[in-house]
Design brief:
The protein is mostly beta strands. 5% of the residues lie in helices and 28% in strands. Among the domains are: 26-58, no CATH class; 216-249, no CATH class; 254-262 and 272-350, Sandwich (Immunoglobulin-like). It has one helix and 21 strands.
């Protein structure tokens, strides 16, 4: 019987050798693994990988992890580790996606020129590795939002308002060819500043002064427009053409001039082109040579500032060379009393 069993074992061994079913040596247990059930081992003779006390996978110094990819060829992806100066941990999130790569070899937090992630922010270190970074933070969205960076080089316009969004109180935003001011109240009404399509390069300059802008119904030479041109204030009129009404001021005044329009409806009296009109007012007890600043007065007019028809008071004027005298009267022909009368006067002449 033993003879037959020995023959059977011999035949089984010969059959196994014939089909290539030869027992292979067990894999080499790595340092730190408790037993062969610990999934931390390498083919015999390997020394690049070890296990820590908890069975963790350790890449030893000088070793790399190479991934061949779906095609067996001359190209592989290699995971390499920069020599750490302390224990480091890279955590793979519970999500499917792609890793963000960088062309910077040392793209670590606080490294010069690095870009890293923080809580709901991107951190830009800048050219100097120091304690200061620029953070780009996103406000918690209430719907899907898209921020588009145009295909051009330039600088971002900043705002001191934390919530500088469309329709937010005090915000300034951009519209189609315009800037939009929301105002202090977030509502359906905004102020927009827009530019008419230019036919050449244009510049609008705000002077170094405080004040309120003068508004016009249209631009220069537009129907109904009121605009300045040099020393002239021009009114285009109802038709946009080559003709405007012009109110011209002195090129260089030699004193402060005040032009007063009375609170009446009527037509302004015109003088020759070389003439100027000067208005003034004084309280006169008898006669007074008024200060008008003209070289050659041609016409002079006066009127009482208050209605004095009940007392019969009046005024008269005299031109003598460059002197203009205004005189006040009572009904009996003598000059007014010491209280004087408020007189408005107008002198027309050449400067």
């Amino acid at each position: 019987m033993k003879k037959y069993l020995s023959v059977a074992w011999a035949l089984l061994l010969i059959l196994a050798l014939a089909v290539g079913c030869v027992p292979k040596p067990a894999p080499e247990l790595l340092a730190g693994a408790a037993d062969y059930n610990t999934p931390c081992y390498t083919p015999q003779g390997g020394a690049s990988f070890t296990c820590d006390s908890g069975g963790g996978f350790v890449v030893n110094a000088g070793a790399t992890v190479t991934l061949e990819g779906a095609t067996a060829d001359a190209y592989e992806t290699t995971l390499a580790v920069v020599d750490p100066t302390a224990d480091r941990t890279f955590t793979l999130p519970d999500a499917t996606g792609y890793a963000v790569v960088s062309s910077l070899a040392t793209n670590a937090p606080d490294a010069a020129n690095s870009i890293s992630g923080a809580s709901n922010a991107l951190l830009f270190e800048g050219a100097t590795a120091n304690a200061y970074e620029t953070s780009v933070i996103v406000i918690d969205p209430t719907a899907d939002r898209t921020v588009t960076i145009p295909d051009e080089t330039g600088a971002v316009i900043m705002s001191a308002l934390t919530t500088n969004g469309t329709d937010v109180a005090n915000s300034v935003t951009g519209g189609t060819n315009m800037l939009v001011w929301e105002g202090a109240t977030a509502d359906a009404y905004e102020t927009s500043v827009s530019a008419t399509d230019p036919t050449a390069d244009r510049s609008v300059v705000l002077q170094d002064a405080s004040g309120t802008l003068v508004l016009s119904a249209g631009g220069i030479d537009a129907a109904g427009a009121l605009f300045f041109s040099g020393q002239d204030l021009k009114y285009e009129g109802t038709t946009a053409d080559a003709y405007e009404g012009v109110l011209r001021f002195p090129v260089e005044p030699t004193a402060d001039y005040i032009y007063v329009l009375p609170s009446y409806s009527g037509t302004v009296m015109l003088a020759a082109a070389a003439h100027q009109t000067v208005f003034g007012s004084n309280t006169i007890t008898g006669t007074l040579a008024v200060t008008h600043g003209l070289t050659t007065p041609a016409y002079v007019f006066c009127a009482l500032a208050a209605d004095s028809s009940a007392t019969g008071q009046s005024c008269s004027t005299v031109i003598s060379g460059s002197t203009v005298t205004v005189k006040v009267w009572k009904p009996d022909g003598i000059t007014a009393g010491s209280a004087g009368l408020a007189i408005n006067w107008m002198v027309v002449g050449t400067p």
